[in-house]
Prior knowledge:
mainly alpha, 3 helices, elongated
Amino acid sequence: MAKNRVEEQWLLVVKDFATNYWDKELEEAKQLFDQPYPHSGEKDYIKQTTFLDNAKRNKLMMLKYLAQSVSGNIHPRGANTVDEKEGAAKLIALAEQRIKKTNE
């Protein structure tokens, strides 16, 4: 195995897990981003707004890691092959098309 490469067996386990949870996490992200911010006059406005912003950021990071896991690109920066990078680009394009269709 090359230095800083993830073992193929581990990669398959992570890919399977990410594939099974992708749709669930994407739906939760849509619900989270549709949730309105609290009114500025509320008692805990700053706390609620900060919590919502942090939840959105964390959900986006979760989606990023799931997408990387499904594509197989979970190696350290610069350690991915050209084929892996092209595969990730194709998956991103498909995800963008899917998101556009659901927003219409």
